[in-house]
Every structure is written in structure tokens, then in C-alpha cells.
Design a protein that fits this description.
The protein has 252 residues and is of the alpha+beta class. It is built from ten helices and four strands. The chain has helices at 22-34, 53-56, 77-87, 98-132, 137-145, 150-161, 166-186, 200-209, 226-236, 239-244, and strands at residues 13-17, 39-42, 66-69, 72-75. It has a four-stranded mixed β-sheet with strand order 2-1-3-4, covered by helices on one side. It is globular, with a radius of gyration of 18 Å. The protein starts with 12 loop residues before the first strand and ends in an 8-residue tail after the last helix.
Length: 252
């Protein structure tokens, strides 16, 4: 299997990704829905491969995924998926209706700006804490020094030395409960988040929907949101979903 240290494969589409990365999952789902062949290169995040000179030359933010299209890097999962729509318009994933297209972008904004941050606060202690809490001060300083994005540096500092508090965790759970309520109301208008057609809205929310089970310990159950539960069943039934390998997060 090729790595970030190997020469770039000579193929049209190359995806640098991580299996458990929510952003990577969105792009894999989009590629699979469109039936686009690509070479996947796994980036080992806990080995800091995303911050090596080889990878930073492709993605200066030091995050996954990065898509290479004919050797040209495209970064940020939302941008990548819209780019794939522009370059490969067959099997469209943007609604033709302008109002539904706007709804698609609202849900993508919700995923990018609200949902991901809430899930990070909810469970980063459990996901990253077992590793980060064992770092020495020198190891933590090295991790922070080699992480380009200030927000991500602060996240590593928090999880290693100042874990998210119970109040912060409960506040994040409340935010996600509000998102479930918004989804339930939105799905009254049609079977998909943007309305009548499956779109990037559903793809971009799917890596977070797979984690809704994490809210059960906070008293929130998907069965209490029947339209959202039915939507999630429809998403999971799509053949591309299985090929994209969007599976529940497992805690150590």
C-alpha cells in the first residue's frame, strides 16, 4: 500500500485520507456515489504523517483528506466534494432546484461549523486522551510545534493537559440534540436533507450521523426522531455507503 513518503501514483484521482476521519469519509462517500476510481493513500494520523514535509507540500493545513486531481492538490472536504461535482457532473449530487441547493449548503455549513466541533468536545477525551495524556511535556511541545493549524494545536493541548470538562461535554450534547431537532423538522419536506433528492447534504452529514449513538448516554435516542431514523436507514442502504466504510467510532 502506498504511503505519504512514496512518489505520487500516476493516476487521475488520488485520495490521501484516514479511515476514521469524518472529513475523509465524506469524500470517500462522494467518490463512491459518483463511481469514480481512485487510489487511496492512508495517512497515519497518530504517527503524525499529516505533518511531515511530504504531506504538508500537498496540504499546508496538515489535515486529511487531500485529493489529487491529475497531480493538483485540492483540500478541505466540502471544497473537494463541490470540486468533484464541477469536474465530474455525471451522477449529480447537487439538487437542480435552487432552493434545495441552498438547503444543501446550509446543512453542509451545519456539519462544518457546528456538528464537528460538538462531537470533538463530546468525545475527544475518550478518542485522543489515552494517547495524548501520556505524552511528556517535550512530546506535547513537539506535537504542537509540528501542527500548522492553531485551532488543532489548542485541541491537542486541551486533550493532553486540560481535558474538556463535564459542563463542556453536556453543552456539546445539547448542541447535537438541537441538530437532531433541526433534522427532524427539515425531513418533513422530503426524504433527504435538502428535500426531494439525495445530495451532498446527506453525504456531508453522514459521518456525524453514524455517531448519533454516542448521544444515548446523554438521554437522546434516534428512535425519538422517526423521520431522522428513517433517513439514516435510507442513507445506509445506499451501496456507496458500504464502499465508503463509514462505520461507528470505536473508543479504546
Amino acid at each position: 500500500m502506498p504511503t505519504v513518503f512514496d512518489p505520487m501514483p500516476d493516476t487521475e484521482l488520488v485520495l490521501y485520507h484516514a479511515w476514521m476521519s469524518s472529513a475523509s469519509r465524506r469524500v470517500r462517500f462522494c467518490l463512491e456515489e459518483k463511481g469514480l476510481p481512485y487510489v487511496g493513500i492512508f495517512v497515519r494520523l497518530l504517527k503524525n504523517e499529516q505533518n511531515t514535509p511530504q504531506y504538508l507540500a500537498l496540504n499546508p493545513n496538515g489535515v486529511v483528506p487531500t485529493l489529487l486531481h491529475r497531480g493538483r492538490p485540492i483540500i478541505e472536504s466540502t471544497v473537494i466534494n463541490e470540486y468533484l461535482e464541477d469536474v465530474y457532473p455525471d451522477t449529480p449530487l447537487r439538487p437542480a432546484d435552487a432552493s434545495e441547493r441552498a438547503a444543501m449548503r446550509v446543512w453542509t455549513y451545519m456539519a462544518d461549523m457546528v456538528v464537528i466541533k460538538a462531537f470533538q468536545e463530546l468525545n475527544w477525551n475518550r478518542m485522543m486522551g489515552p494517547t495524548a495524556s501520556k505524552w511528556s511535556d517535550e512530546e506535547l511541545a513537539q506535537k504542537i510545534a509540528t501542527t500548522p493549524m492553531p485551532e488543532r494545536r489548542e485541541q491537542w493541548r486541551r486533550v493532553a493537559r486540560q481535558p474538556y470538562t463535564q459542563d463542556e461535554i453536556e453543552r456539546a450534547a445539547d448542541v447535537l440534540g438541537h441538530v437532531l431537532e433541526r433534522m427532524e423538522a427539515s425531513l418533513e419536506r422530503g426524504p433527504w436533507l435538502a428535500g426531494s433528492v439525495f445530495s451532498l447534504a446527506d453525504i456531508n452529514m453522514s459521518p456525524y450521523a453514524v455517531r448519533f449513538g454516542e448521544l444515548e448516554e446523554h438521554g437522546m435516542f434516534l428512535r425519538d426522531y422517526p423521520r431522522t431514523q428513517a433517513w439514516w436507514a435510507r442513507v445506509q442502504a445506499r451501496p456507496a455507503f458500504a464502499r465508503a466504510k463509514i462505520e461507528p467510532v470505536k473508543f479504546a
